[in-house]
Design goal:
This protein is of the alpha/beta class. 50% of the residues lie in helices and 16% in strands.
Length: 385
C-alpha cells in the first residue's frame, strides 16, 4: 500500500518549507501521497490541497479571535478526514497555534504527529513545553540550542538546521548586488527594513525616516534602500515620507528585493524578526530595533526570559549587534549605532566572521535531515506515537 501523509502548512513560509520536505521525502518514497492544508508550492509537488494555507494567515490576537470559529471549523473538518482516512503520519509545519491541538488529537488516534519548526518556547512561552510533550511524537528544530529544551521535557527531537542557511551563499556577492541596483561600490549604503506587517511599518516608519535624516545631515552621500513587501506597506511608508517632509532624502524604495538590498548595504537597520537572521546570513553588520504599544511591550518584557530579542544575538549567545528597543528606538540613538559600524572596519570584519561561523552551523541540508528523521515513523517497525 502507498504511504499517505497528512500535512498542514501555514502561510507562505510554511508552504515553501513543506514543499522542500515533500520533495525530500519523495526521494525515498516516490509513490507517497500527501494531503491537507497547503499552498501552491506544495501543490506543485503533488500535494492534495483540501484547504489553501492562506486561510491560516492571521495578524495578531484580535484577528485570531475574530476568525476563531472559522479556523476551528476547518481544523475539526480536517481532523475528521484524518481519522477517516488513517494516513501513516501527520506533519504540522509551523503554525503552532493551529497545529498543536490537531497534533494531540491525531496522536491520540494512534497516528504519529511530527511538528516541523519548533515553537519559540525559548523566547516567550516556555509553558507550552508540557502541551507540546502531550501533542507531538517528534519535534524538528531549526536552531542548535533547541533540542536540549525538548529533551528535558521528554520530547523526541532532531536538529535539522535552518533552510535559509541552505539557500543563502556562504559568501554573498556585494558587488553583483550593487551592480544590479546601479549603486557605485564606493557609496555608503544603509538598508532599512521596517518589517513586513502593516502595523510594524506604521510603528517604525517615522523613526526610520528620522534616522535617515540624521545620517544624511552627517553624510549627504549615503543612500538608503527601503524594501517593502506589499503595496499597503509601501503606501504607509510613502505617507510617512510626506508627513516628515522627507522628499529630498536619498531614499530608494524597492518592491521586495530585501535580500538584494541587504547584500548591497554596508549596514542594515532592521526590525527584529526573520530579516535579522537573513542579515546575519548575509554577513552584514546591523542594528536591531522594535517599537510597539507601551502596555504590549510591558507584557512581552515580563514574559520574556532571554536578554535579547534578535535572532543573531540569541544564536550567538551574546550581544554581537546592538538592539535598540522601545524608548531607545529613536533617530539619535539609531543613527549613532549605525555610524559606529561605519567608523570601525575591524568590528565589521569581526562580526562578519562570527556570522560566517553561525551560517555553517545552521547549514545542515534541512529538508534532507527532516525527511530522515520522519522516515522511521513511516516504517511499520519504526517508532510509534
Amino acid at each position: 500500500m502507498k504511504i499517505r501523509i497528512a500535512m498542514v502548512a501555514g502561510e507562505t513560509s510554511g508552504d515553501l518549507l513543506a514543499s522542500h520536505l515533500i520533495r525530500a521525502l519523495r526521494r525515498h518514497l516516490p509513490d507517497a501521497e500527501f494531503f491537507g492544508i497547503g499552498g501552491p508550492k506544495m501543490q506543485a509537488e503533488g500535494f492534495d490541497v483540501r484547504w489553501p494555507c492562506e486561510l491560516l494567515a492571521v495578524h495578531g490576537y484580535v484577528d485570531a479571535l475574530k476568525r476563531y470559529r472559522e479556523l476551528s471549523g476547518i481544523r475539526r473538518a480536517l481532523l475528521a478526514q484524518i481519522r477517516a482516512e488513517r494516513p501513516d503520519a501527520f506533519i504540522g509545519v509551523d503554525a503552532p497555534d493551529f497545529n498543536l491541538w490537531l497534533e494531540g488529537k491525531v496522536r491520540d488516534a494512534g497516528i504519529p504527529a511530527i511538528h516541523f519548526v519548533g515553537p519559540s518556547i525559548w523566547a516567550w512561552r516556555g509553558g507550552r513545553i508540557k502541551r507540546i510533550a502531550r501533542s507531538v511524537s517528534h519535534m524538528l528544530c531549526l536552531f542548535p540550542f533547541e533540542p536540549e529544551l525538548y529533551e528535558r521535557a521528554g520530547v523526541p527531537v532532531s536538529y535539522v538546521g535552518h533552510p535559509l542557511a541552505d539557500e543563502f551563499p556562504l559568501e554573498p556577492d556585494r558587488a553583483a548586488a550593487r551592480e544590479r541596483l546601479g549603486i557605485p561600490l564606493e557609496r555608503g549604503v544603509v538598508a532599512m527594513l521596517p518589517g513586513s506587517r502593516q502595523s510594524e511599518v506604521r510603528n517604525l516608519a517615522d523613526i526610520f525616516i528620522g534616522t535617515a535624516k540624521t545620517l544624511h545631515e552627517r553624510d549627504p552621500e549615503r543612500l538608503f534602500l527601503v524594501p517593502l513587501a506589499t503595496r499597503e506597506t509601501r503606501q504607509i511608508f510613502e505617507e510617512a515620507l510626506h508627513r516628515n517632509d522627507a522628499g529630498g532624502l536619498p531614499i530608494r524604495m524597492l518592491f521586495g528585493h530585501a535580500v538584494e538590498a541587504m547584500t548591497a548595504a554596508d549596514v542594515v537597520l532592521v526590525a527584529s524578526g526573520t530579516a535579522s537572521l537573513e542579515a546575519a546570513l548575509l554577513k552584514r553588520p546591523m542594528v536591531i530595533t522594535y517599537r510597539i504599544g507601551k502596555w504590549q511591550y510591558r507584557l512581552m518584557k515580563r514574559m520574556a526570559y532571554l536578554p535579547w530579542v534578535g535572532l543573531p544575538n540569541i544564536l550567538c549567545g551574546e550581544t554581537v549587534v546592538p538592539e535598540l528597543l522601545q524608548d531607545e528606538a529613536d533617530p539619535e540613538h539609531l543613527a549613532a549605532a549605525i555610524d559606529d559600524w561605519f567608523a570601525d572596519d575591524a568590528r565589521r570584519a569581526a562580526v562578519a566572521a562570527r556570522f560566517s561561523d553561525l551560517h555553517r552551523t545552521l547549514r545542515q541540508d534541512t529538508a534532507r535531515r527532516a525527511a530522515e528523521a520522519i522516515l522511521p515513523y513511516l516504517d511499520k517497525a519504526g517508532p510509534k506515537a
